[in-house]
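Reopening: Heme-binding protein 1 still failing for me.
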Amino acid sequence: MTISPSQARHFAVARRDFFSKMNCLIGAVVLLLSITAEARVGNSSEPTSYCTETKECLLFDLICEGKEYEVRHYEAAKWVATEIESIFIDVAKVKAFRKLYRYITGENEEGATIDMTAPVITKVKAETSWLENSVYVLSFLLPSAYQKHAPQPNDTSVYLTDMPDMNVYVKSYGGWILSPIAKKYSGQLKKALDNAQATYQKDYYYDVGYNSPMKLTDRHNEAWYVAKGTPVCPPAE
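Support: Ran it again with your exact input. Result attached.
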C-alpha cells in the first residue's frame, strides 16, 4: 500500500499531537501527585477540630470509625527524631522534647527557625516491665516547607527520618498523656484489635499528643498501632 505525501504529513501531525497530549497528561499526573504529597502536611483547620495550636498538622484520610477505634491512612512524611533510653517514659519524653525543640529553634546547619507542628509522637516498645530500661523515640513532624529539604541537626543524637505511607489504628482520649493513662488506652486499643482479629505491628505503638503544656482543658491525645495488610474496621456504633 502506497501512502501519498499528504497522508504522510497527516499521520506525522496526528502522531505529534498524540505524544504532545500524552506528555501533558503525564505532567498533570505528576503535578497532582506532588501537590497531594505536600498537602499531607497542611493547614490546621483541615484534619480535625482538635489540631488548632499549630499552623500545620499531619493530615490523614479517615477510612472508617467506630466506638472502639478508628482507622486512618497517612501518606509518607518527613520527621525529625531523637532517642532516649530511660526507665521512665515521662522523663525520656521531657529530655527528648528539649533536644528536638533546640533543633527547630536554630540548632541546625542553616540556623533556621522551624515552626512547631502537631502531633508530637513517641514510639514505645509494647511489652516492658515496670522498672525495665527502654528506648523511646520522640519525633516532631516537619512543616510542609521542609518536607522536601530540611537542615541537618547540629546535635548528632538528633536525626531526620521518613515515616512511610501507612494505615493506622487510632484510639483517642482526653486529659494529660502521662504514662499510666497512655498505657491504659494503648491497652484498650490492643484488646479491641485482638478481638477484631486485626493484624498490626505488635512490637510497638505510638503515644500521640496534640497540645502544648500550656493548654489546660479540651486536650486531645491518641494511641496508634500501625496496621499490617488490609485494615479491619471496628463494629458500627
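DSSP finds three helices and eleven strands in the chain. If you still see a failure, please send the error message rather than a screenshot.
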